[in-house]
Amino acid sequence: MRNVRAKALLLAGVLSLFVLLLCKDFIDNNIFNLEEDAREDKHQIRQLIQKKPYVYSWPACQQNMSAANITGFKTLPQHIQDFLYYRHCRHFPMLLDLPYKCGGADKSAEVFLLLVIKSSPGNYDRREVLRKTWAKERLHNGVWIRRVFISGTTDTGFEKERLNKLLKVEQREYNDIIQWDFHDSFFNLTLKQILFLEWMEQNCPNAHFLLNGDDDVLAHTNNMVEYLQGLKDNDGSKHLFAGHLIYNVGPIRESWNKYYIPVQVQESNSYPSYCGGGGFLLSGYTAMVIYNMSQSITILPIDDVYMGMCLAKAGLSPASHMGVKTAGLHIPSRKHDVYDPCFYQDVLLVHRFLSAQLYLMWNILNDPNLECGPKKNLSSTKL
Ligand SMILES: *[C@@H]1O[C@H](CO)[C@@H](O)[C@H](O)[C@H]1NC(C)=O
Ligand SMILES: *[C@@H]1O[C@H](CO)[C@@H](O)[C@H](O)[C@H]1NC(C)=O
Ligand SMILES: *[C@@H]1O[C@H](CO)[C@@H](O)[C@H](O)[C@H]1NC(C)=O
Ligand SMILES: *[C@@H]1O[C@H](CO)[C@@H](O)[C@H](O)[C@H]1NC(C)=O
Ligand SMILES: *[C@@H]1O[C@H](CO)[C@@H](O)[C@H](O)[C@H]1NC(C)=O
Questions:
Q1: Which of 175, 179, 264, 372 could form a disulfide with 95 if both were Cys (CB 3.0 to 4.6 A apart)?
Q2: Which residue owns the Cα nearest ligand 4 atom 7?
Q3: Which pathway is this protein engaged in (predicted)?
Q4: Is 69 in the pocket of ligand 1 (CB under 6 A)?
Q5: How many domains does the chain divide into?
């Protein structure tokens, strides 16, 4: 009897100590937190208590064997044959998801600028430097910038497994990767884009604006926020699609070219106007219109042209913003350093930047002592 009571007492003691430690931990964690951390905590608690709203678990899509009947199929390069076999596939199993990146669909209007960065599994060093520089999740000018990397899979066998594991490990630390189980290749970028828009419709439909771009650019996200805030008549609920405008072009018919599109893929000799895929800005509204249009437009493997096709079908136009330099920056003379930060303080986006230059440039651009003369007004888009 005494033995049982002693055990009960001991148990009660251990339990209360445990509760005490928990409380202490809770208090320690909460007293000194900044706003951002508090938000992260809430975010995590929500993840724990809410169930996933939607499970993406599509079966693998079957090859379309009839594609081989297309005239001249055997003469086409391998990657184009692959494309034609799988052109109809629009759903792939999800490997990594971020259902609460925007706080859930209902809260997603709290995201002002969502950075959507195409990145292949192997590009770890690029992701790492972007997380520390322009793609850092933060409050800027009173509004939230959030980040997602979108990825497929590369390689096969052990190498594929290892790269998937790398993304899993990164996800555990940064919570910023959406990955589907399709082959991440140049000709599957349109697929990646559509899969992202589908994700957005489910999980982040009310984000105000998006930057859609590559992982090898310098995106001046501070300037972007300021530019977008300056659009007095558009809070993201109206049309916006701005970048490096390309028009009056059509499919390249030379088979050695990276952008080769044979008539078997597109018969027409012209493309609609579009913005170069290195990086462009769009409103949440326009993203959802594009997603709607994409449902009834056959996939064209060149992703930026495909976005142009979706806009055209909706009767909307892409616009040119002179701050987006996807073809690089024009430096007036050889005497100038191409990495002189003063050339970059007014840009929205420059392609392309390697990790070390990017890390340095972003730090210099954010140095309050940087002296370059007055900043240009970025609020003017011109067609
Ligand atoms: C395509 O070719 C296969 C044999 O290679 C044939 O069975 C099929 O009927 C052909 N036509 C279509 C439209 O699939
Ligand atoms: C398969 O390919 C053929 C030839 O291009 C095409 O006519 C057919 O619509 C495709 N089937 C599907 C399911 O996309
Ligand atoms: C696109 O991804 C699918 C699924 O992994 C793959 O079967 C197909 O070959 C890929 N297409 C290209 C052009 O890489
Ligand atoms: C997209 O389509 C859905 C369903 O057809 C519709 O409810 C929604 O308003 C559309 N969104 C836009 C932005 O066009
Ligand atoms: C920038 O230009 C826009 C329109 O051209 C104008 O409305 C705005 O006041 C300007 N902003 C500054 C800071 O000069």
A1: 179
A2: 292
A3: Protein modification
A4: yes
A5: 1
Helix (H) and strand (E) counts in the chain: 10, 14
Q: Is residue 40 part of a domain?
A: no
Residue 378 Cα to ligand 5 middle (Å):
8
Provide the residue-wise pLDDT of the chain in tens; the chain has 383 residues. Answer: 455 565 555 555 554 544 444 444 444 343 333 344 444 444 544 444 444 445 557 777 899 999 999 999 999 999 999 999 999 999 999 999 999 999 999 999 999 999 999 999 999 999 999 999 999 999 999 999 999 999 999 999 999 999 999 999 999 999 999 999 999 999 999 999 999 999 999 999 999 999 999 999 999 999 999 999 999 999 999 999 999 999 999 999 999 999 999 999 999 999 999 999 999 999 999 999 999 999 999 999 999 999 999 999 999 999 999 999 988 788 778 788 889 999 999 999 999 899 999 999 999 999 999 989 787 777 765 54
Q: Is residue 61 part of a domain?
A: no
Instruction: CATH number of the domain at 147, please.
Output: 3.90.550
Distance 221 CA to ligand 5 centre (A): 19
Ligand 2 atom with least separation from CA of 88? 14
Question: In this structure, which ligand is nearest to the CA of 69?
Answer: 1
Q: Domain limits at 105?
A: 93-320
In ligand 4, the atom with minimum distance to the C-alpha of 285 is 13
Kindly state if the Cβ of 288 falls inside 6 Å of ligand 4: yes
Residue nearest to ligand 5 atom 2, measured at CA = 379
Residue 190 CA: which ligand is closest? 3
Q: DSSP class of residue 56?
A: -
Which class for 22: exposed (0-12), middle (13-18), buried (19 or more C-beta within 10 A)? Answer: exposed
What pTM, to 2 d.p., does this model score?
0.85
Whether residue 41 lies inside any domain: the answer is: no
Closest CA relative to residue 383, chosen from 312, 322, 305, 307: 322
Task: Dihedral sign for Cα 364, 366, 368, 371, please.
Answer: positive
Task: Tell whether 117 is covered by a domain.
Answer: yes
